[in-house]
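Sync notes, pocket subgroup
Present: LS, DG
LS reminded everyone that the earlier model was apo-only. Rerun requested with magnesium ion included. Inputs:
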Amino acid sequence: MPILMHIDFNSYFASVEQQANPFLRGKAIAVGGKGKGLGGSTRSVVATASREAKARGVKTAMSTWEAKKICPELIILPGDPQKYSDITNRLITICTKYADQLEQFSTDEVFLDVTQSAQDYFGATLLAQTIRAELKAACGSACTASIGVAPNKLVAKLASESVKPNGLTVVLPENVAAFVATRPLKEFCGIGRQTERALETMGATSVATLRAISREQLVARFKSHGAWLSNAAHGKDNTPLAVDAPAKSIGHSYTFPANLLTKHDVWKNLLALSDRVASRMQHGYVVGFRVNAFVRYGDFSQMGGDKLFKEPLRDGLGIAKSAWSILLPNIDYARGVRLIGVTVSALQKNSVPPSLFRKTEKMHSVLGALNTIQKRFGQHAWQRATTAGTMLLERTSGWHYDHELAA
Ligand SMILES: [Mg+2]
């Protein structure tokens, strides 16, 4: 059975503003947006209210005029989309590390499939706590999120919704039916205003009363949505995550301004290219098991091949050595190497257990540090001494990403 996690920032835009400006913390604030007024005119509405404003009765979609009336000290700020998307990206970066799959559901919500990475509900609980700690470090303590863990999306979202702010609610499979019965129907993602009203006319105003209506009756009234409602009343849902297909391969190729004529030049450029591939693999938290390497000669003929490895490839030197093992026996320097391409495929989430060997363990911690440096200061923050003076480093605008094609 899958284990899903739903993470939802609390009072998102308002919290981000409070994080950015300490003078706004603890105060009733609202981030304004545009809404539809009478006769289709636009009017200013509350997009997000801070916890303090909500306590005073300020609600999302309320006109700012009305909000000011019930809460005169309310501070209304214009929205700053760039600020919010920066924080959203931090959430996604953190979650990508831990999730088997991720669906960004809205600006401030993600669903994670953690079935493999967490193994069980105990693991999922620890994972949720880890993510929460990393979120706090990356986004600041004013940006809290509520997390729900459950066997499906419907219940995970109900769970995160049930404790705010900063909640962590884990619903074990055996407790799903009982937990769901405690939630109001309007909190169900899939029961909108219209459905809620229609259900009311059938006598269903709560989970208990909804359960009393037969599946046949629900289907007769709501068609296929009726079958979903009948399941939802018992906390059953099998909606899959909407995820983008992950990259199937990561590669770089490069055409040199002048043909390479020596073994040394080919090797050091191959190494520099492999470092770029490794860097992108590390950003995507994947390792790979297959390498494809090829060279194109000055006369446009091509030589290369691919090889499958038992040990995961994760660092530039490892990738370069593997690629070299394909190229070295056959390469003909006299023809001049015009282009080199390296691609790693058979990608897997980087969940391979840490090696028992000291030497590789050491290397992995170094790689982690180098990766952090690169994330902070850019791709060219460091380079191997061997690759100093490689032509591709001098012509960074010439990067090719032409090997991201699906395998
Ligand atoms: Mg939210």
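DG: Residues 259 and 336 are 5 Å apart (CA to CA).
LS: The domain at 249-398 is CATH 3.30.1490.100 (Dna Ligase; domain 1).
Action: DG to write up.
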